[in-house]
Amino acid sequence: MRAMLRFFFLGAVCSGLTMSLYGCAGYRASKTGPTVQDTENLVYLDFALKVSIPCETLNAEQLPSGRTRVHARFVNRQNHTAECQIKVRFKDSEGRILDETGWMPLLLPRREVTQFEHTSLCTGAKDFTILLRAAKG
């Protein structure tokens, strides 16, 4: 019985020491690099769309009011209307999101070119990211 208590006590002391040593080291957050949504201007959230609905042109212009307007031109290569959703994030020069839209419907008629345009609500946007996904249905 005494040997069992000694074993239990030694185990408790060792685990306490281990926890206190590692607990005092502090939390180390894993550092990952920037994601695709941080670096690219157009992100396809569904891979099949990248092939069937390529983007011909993608650019942004600074308006006299200081707001940013983005233009995108998509080509639907499918034989049916593509029902998609699109979201735009406008970012400052450091990559912080200043303005973000909700998911907006984007219908692309079969075998046609569709223009998309959206203007930021705030001034100071220097960069943008467009997210495109298939509509949930």
Distance between the amino and carboxyl termini? 67 Å
Structural class: alpha+beta
Query: In the residues, how many domains can be counted?
Result: 1
CATH architecture tag: Sandwich
- Tell how many strands the DSSP assignment holds: 8
Number of helices: 3
> Class in CATH?
Mainly Beta
Q: Nearest-angstrom radius of gyration?
A: 26 Å
Identify the overall geometry.
globular
Average pLDDT rating:
84
The topology string of helices and strands comes to HHEHEEEEEEE
| Main sheet attributes: strand count, strand direction, barrel closure | 5 strands, mixed
Folded structure, characterized:
The chain is built from three helices and eight strands; from the N terminus they run ααβαβββββββ. It is α+β, with helices and mostly antiparallel strands and 137 residues long. The chain has one domain (37-134): Sandwich (Immunoglobulin-like). Strands 1, 4, 5, 6 and 8 form a five-stranded mixed β-sheet that branches. A three-stranded antiparallel β-sheet has the order 2-3-7, with no helix packed on it. The termini are far apart.
